[in-house]
From TrEMBL:
Membrane-spanning intervals of the chain: none
Top-rank taxon, per record: Bacteria
Cleaved signal peptide residues: none
Protein name: MEMO1 family protein RSPPHO_02915
Family: Belongs to the MEMO1 family.
Pfam families hit by this protein: Memo (PF01875)
InterPro entries, sorted: MEMO1_fam
Length: 272
């Protein structure tokens, strides 16, 4: 068993001092809209620096308040920005480090993926990747206790991604978080138009219509959409904006969206 996977973007994407980080996350959550809805089964949330995407991420994580003591495991999936590969990457690390404290990995649950021929250990995909790490401080502040199942997603089909998610779905103790930004580096008005169309695609559960132009995490997002469509789920839009609305120039922006999937039980899924 390897030691903790170290942080890669603490002090860059978010504060690395525990007190400052807790305050920053709490301030973002305090500004997020409230809701009387039950805790979601799954979230889609962005992974940029907090100054850019923090309000959108907070809109998603604020919805976890009713599940604070119920959710005990978080399956966290995101794209690989630096290491191209085929399949799904697991880690043998004991946990993920965070300025707010390490998060232990639930290897017994993660091992459910190892029966799939396209899933296996790839530490090189985890070590530099920011798409998972940036979610941990929000989870720390919103959940009483939790273990982590981190999965970096390479090239897999929609059916393969949906099958992997079904293996990890669990019950109300398990939260699924899909990490994705939307459009990248378009002028503000073009990004807004594309992100509006992408939001409609996501809400229509049209998994096959998503690609890298629409969302960097299109692979795990598409898997979630496919499962939601197959089992009668619905994704609720919580926020949609871009870096041009928060802290960046409007000449080249990145889009961010947040969605919640209400509690949803799955019947057994055939493996591809």
């Amino acid at each position: 068993m390897l030691p903790l996977r170290p942080t890669a973007v603490a002090g860059i994407f978010y504060p690395d001092a525990p007190t400052a980080l807790a305050r920053a996350v709490d301030d973002l959550l305090a500004e997020a809209p409230g809701s009387d809805a039950p805790a979601p089964k799954a979230l889609i949330a962005p992974h940029a620096g907090y100054v850019y995407s923090g309000p959108t991420a907070a809109a998603a994580y604020a919805r976890l308040a009713p599940g604070r003591d119920t959710i005990e495991r978080v399956v966290l999936l995101g794209p690989s920005h630096r290491v191209p590969f085929r399949g799904l990457a697991l880690t043998e690390a004991q946990g993920y480090a965070s300025p707010l404290g390490p998060v232990a990995i639930d290897h017994a649950w993660a091992d459910r993926l190892r029966a799939l021929p396209y899933a296996g250990t790839l530490e090189d995909a985890h070590l530099p990747e920011h798409a998972l790490e940036v979610h941990l401080p929000f989870l720390h502040r919103m959940l009483t206790r939790f273990t982590l199942v981190p999965v970096v997603c390479g090239q897999v089909s929609v059916a393969q991604m949906a099958a992997a998610l079904a293996e990890l779905w669990g019950g109300p103790e398990t939260l699924i978080v899909v990490s994705s930004d939307l459009s990248h580096y378009l002028p503000y008005d073009q990004a807004r138009a594309l992100d509006d169309a992408t939001a409609q695609t996501i809400e229509a559960l049209d998994a096959e219509a998503l690609g890298p132009r629409e969302a960097c995490g299109h692979i795990p997002v598409a898997g979630l959409l496919a499962l939601a469509r197959a089992h009668g789920g619905r994704l609720e839009r919580l926020d949609l904006r871009s870096s041009g609305d928060t802290a960046g120039s409007r000449e080249r922006v990145v889009g961010y969206g947040a969605w919640a999937l209400a509690p949803l039980s799955l019947s057994p899924q055939p493996r591809p």
